[in-house]
């Protein structure tokens, strides 16, 4: 039997947001790509949430995101809302809170009901209003019956970092920095899984996707914390575990998480237990992780609490000089290493 | 029996680049979207090749393109080359010849051979070198077996119009303007169709896709013609017929084409006859149509002829005050109205 990944074929885990995906991207799609662009910009080789280019006296950020969620409608959102928020949030994680606009590429299967596309479009429009942006350009492709399961979208976005600020990276944590999360963990992934498997884990309002545009929340955090907000990432595929593992590895620090501080809704915890999944490995679509210098973390936390999307924000951990690249969970009874998911746990979750 | 398009389901022709697609886009994806953006920019509602935004003293253009070609490898190119050229050419058609970079979203079917993706990636890198640009950001998604036929890509691009110039539109033709095409017509579509149906129409080198990045060619045309180059469009899906019909409709002019002037390779003509297809309706991926004020058309034509990708450029028609929105073919024996294709002629051609 061949080892996992050695059979020369693409596997679901190559899209799962964890180590297999990062290995595919760095050995193939980003091979030879520069980390730094002329003028100090951020290139594909940096494998950050997007690229940053100097334009005049400002930083322009450019990001893209594909959306293949199954089912396309789920409690709390749909693939259209996801397409807008995914691109807007990637911009926001680089500090680009002034969204210039989005592109949207729609790929449809022949025979798909137009009524579904109407609902998705209405959702795109509503999410754009929330994010105070708009779709600027698009493309439509139709594939024959059986060539595509329903509908997939891809979006890209461009936006500016506010004048006088620099882009925010994911590789600049240092020991002592504190880790904040903007709210409850695991909501999106468990809402989609529950809908897919028709799980009942309490009332539906308890198991809803958190999909939301974070540019406003991030602007509030940056306004409060300034340059003390040194790193950001949205914990989508692969969840908080993958996002923090990536930040820890790139920054050369360890990250110690306090389990008791981790906000998880009871229904999400119940669904996770039913499916044998760690909430840390579950996708979020409306949450941000912040790495903040300790002297400003109270101010940033207060700014998050004052925002509608940050009411449940928490300080969940801190960076260590030891255990570089590792994520360690303090359970209250002891410490254990958190592993990233690297399997076919949740295909087509976003 | 329901009328075509009245059954509330997406059909292949909704992605064919003709009237059905334009109707779907304007009634759904672009409904309510402004044609003009604040500051005089070009918005989604203009349904041009991309959007244009004022950034400082320059115009930034943003475009996107989906790529679903079947088969993914064809004589003269592959889906990777298509993804780079599609986005670069949409920028170029707006006058943005200074390409800042591309985004690339890759969607793969589980089980797809990695070796194919390696070949596609090598082709992306080569096309980027030709276009003097690079991929700046990306995303990778994997769908389960049977959820997607192989591989689809979507790209977006950002670029600047050269300082002091304005974006080039597709709606500003006026009677007397001349229409130039940068080379032979129908090469891409017929190469893909021949490969798909294993047609033999002469040596393979005669039936090759023209897929190529046009930013260099367009820069040469704009340098020669300046503001006399009043309109551009690349005749992709729907071919020259759809591109010129759209330009004629938006500009409120008629366009008279001279059939004898239309450059068509003998092998392409033979394949078209075999399949009963009009070369005017066949997709191109490395050709541009220019609308030029008559006093500068010789200069622009000379500039095209001097470029590797413009050796077979021709003056193929001119704009009329009458027959607004129509494309008329002068066959040498008489005149006839050219209809756009609006069927399932060539699904997944790009």
Q: What is the CATH top level name of the largest domain in chain A?
A: Alpha Beta
Count of individual domains of chain A: 2
CATH superfamily of the largest domain in chain A: PurM-like C-terminal domain
* Uncertain spans of chain A: 1-5
- The share of residues in extended strands of chain A comes to 15-25%
CATH architecture of the largest domain in chain A: Alpha-Beta Complex
| Strands ordered across the widest β-sheet of chain A | 11-13-10-14-12-15-16
Classify the secondary structure makeup of chain A into a structural class: alpha+beta
* Strand segment tally of chain A: 16
User: Average pLDDT value of chain A?
Assistant: 94
Largest interface: A-B, 75 and 75 residues
Order of helices and strands of chain A: HEEEEEEHEHEEEHHEHEHEHEEE
Q: Level of helix content of chain A?
A: 25-40%
CATH topology category name of the largest domain in chain A: Phosphoribosyl-aminoimidazole Synthetase, Chain A, domain 2
Number of helices of chain A: 8
User: Major sheet of chain A, described briefly?
Assistant: 7 strands, mixed
Give me the Rg of chain A, rounded: 19 Å
**Overall 3D shape of chain A:** globular
Counting copies of identical and different chains, the oligomeric state is: homodimer
Alpha carbon gap, first and last residue of chain A: 31 Å
């Amino acid at each position: 039997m061949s080892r996992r990944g050695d059979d020369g074929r693409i596997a679901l885990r190559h899209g799962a947001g964890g180590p297999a995906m990062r290995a595919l991207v760095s050995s193939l799609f980003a091979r030879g790509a520069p980390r730094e662009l002329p003028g100090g910009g951020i290139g594909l080789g940096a494998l950050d949430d997007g690229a940053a280019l100097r334009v005049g006296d400002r930083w322009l950020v450019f990001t893209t995101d594909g959306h293949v969620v199954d089912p396309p409608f789920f409690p709390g959102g749909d693939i259209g809302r996801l397409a807008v928020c995914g691109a807007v949030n990637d911009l926001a994680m680089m500090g680009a809170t002034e969204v210039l606009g989005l592109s949207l590429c729609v790929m449809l299967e022949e025979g798909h009901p137009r009524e579904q596309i109407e609902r998705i479009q209405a959702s795109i429009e509503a999410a754009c209003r929330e994010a105070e942006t708009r779709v600027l350009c698009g493309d439509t492709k139709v594939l024959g019956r059986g060539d595509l399961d329903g509908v997939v979208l891809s979006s890209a976005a461009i936006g500016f970092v506010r004048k006088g600020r620099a882009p925010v990276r994911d590789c600049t944590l240092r020991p002592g920095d504190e880790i904040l999360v903007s709210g409850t963990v695991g909501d999106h992934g468990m809402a989609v899984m529950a809908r897919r498997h028709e799980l009942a884990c309490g009332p539906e309002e308890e198991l809803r996707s958190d999909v939301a545009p974070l540019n406003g929340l991030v602007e509030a955090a940056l306004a409060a914390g300034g340059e003390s907000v040194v790193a950001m990432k949205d914990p989508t595929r692969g969840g908080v575990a993958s996002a923090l593992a990536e930040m820890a590895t790139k920054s050369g620090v360890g990250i110690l998480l306090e389990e008791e501080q981790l906000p998880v809704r009871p229904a999400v915890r119940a669904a996770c237990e039913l499916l044998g999944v760690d909430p840390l490995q579950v996708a979020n679509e409306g949450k941000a992780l912040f790495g903040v210098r300790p002297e400003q973390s109270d101010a940033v936390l207060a700014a998050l609490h004052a925002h509608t999307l940050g009411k449940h924000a928490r300080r969940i951990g801190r960076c260590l000089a030891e255990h570089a690249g590792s994520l360690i969970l303090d359970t209250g009874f002891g410490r254990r290493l958190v592993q990233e998911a690297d399997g076919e746990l949740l295909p087509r979750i976003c």
